[in-house]
Amino acid sequence: DIVIIGGGPAGLSAAIYAGRALRSVLVIDKGEGRWSYNQHNENYLGFPQGISAKHLREVGKKQAQKFGADFVDDEIKTIKKRAKGFAFKGMNKTYLGRTVIFSTGVKDHFPSFEGAEKYIGRSLFWCLLCDGYKIRGKRVAVLGFDDQAVDTCMHLRKYTKDLVFLTNCDETGDKVSPEKKALLKKMRIPLHYGSIAEAKGSRGYIREICLDSGVKVKADVLFSRQGYSPNVDLATQLGVILEGKGYIKTDVNKRTNIPGVYAAGDVTSETAHQIVTAAFEGATASIS
Q1: How far apart are CA 97 and CA 84, in angstroms?
Q2: Distance (Å, whole) CA 132 – CA 46
Q3: Closest CA to 120 of 36, 189, 186, 177
């Protein structure tokens, strides 16, 4: 009855609700996404000690399976409309479904340097709401090349005064306005140009960041604000309408412009990107 593309919080929530409604449900996931990071979530209701993204995904999958949802590890390459639904062509197999929920999330644009993946979620953060609290009193390097990154840097002053701003590009590549550069100077936050050549640390925790300019910055945390982009390639194959910066447009019931096609989670909005909102949207799409 329902094929769900993406097995993060939105997809899992949708699968649980659909399974409990006695619908046949297939969740197709290629094993990537924010749930696969080494992140420990402390702001999701019901877990006073926090819960890792991987563990939440694991228990969420078991919960969905309890109510009859099936899971398959695959990457869908193409989707085509059929007389009674849709055909989803994976790497080696084709799946058929009457309806589809896209919970494909976003792709984060993390800095590229050797070993970067081992720091993600431990000392390489990206979400002010999720991770701001974790940086209290620490040495923080904020990474970004536009005014939005500077705004994040200003918000982080609530948590720490030991801040440095890195553009991760040379002076010809940054888009920071003169006004924001003046604000950094006023707040006595150093600004350094240059790409990250290396990060020194151990067990996923950064100690020092080395730029290709030769500058070395002592830091406990690298806060990346290089942005992200929604994973909408599959949705656009069906003619789904996008809005804003390329996110899937839905109504309040998470319906798209194509009958039988729904979307939930980070792929539907540039803002929020919280587990609680993803779970809500997944439930809403499934109920709808």
Answers
A1: 8
A2: 20
A3: 36
Amino acid at 110: F
Least confident piece of the model among 7-11, 31-35, 151-155, 273-277: 31-35
Q: What CA–CA distance (Å, rounded) separates 268 from 100?
A: 15
Supply the pLDDT for residue 271: 86
Q: Is the pLDDT of residue 22 over 90?
A: yes
Question: Residue 191: which residues within 8 A CB-CB, separation 6 or more?
Answer: 164, 165, 166, 167, 181, 184, 185
Which of 162, 126, 161, 123 has the alpha carbon at shortest distance from 143?
Answer: 126
Give, rounded to a whole angstrom, the gap between the first and last alpha carbons of the chain.
13
Please answer whether residues 144 and 225 qualify as being in contact, where contact means their C-beta atoms are separated by less than 8 angstroms: yes
- Residue with tokens 């899992």, as numbered in its chain: 12
Are 274 and 43 in contact, with CB atoms under 8 Å apart? yes
Tokens at residue 9, please?
């919080």
| φ/ψ bin of 275: left (φ > 0), alpha (ψ from -120 to 50), beta (otherwise) | alpha
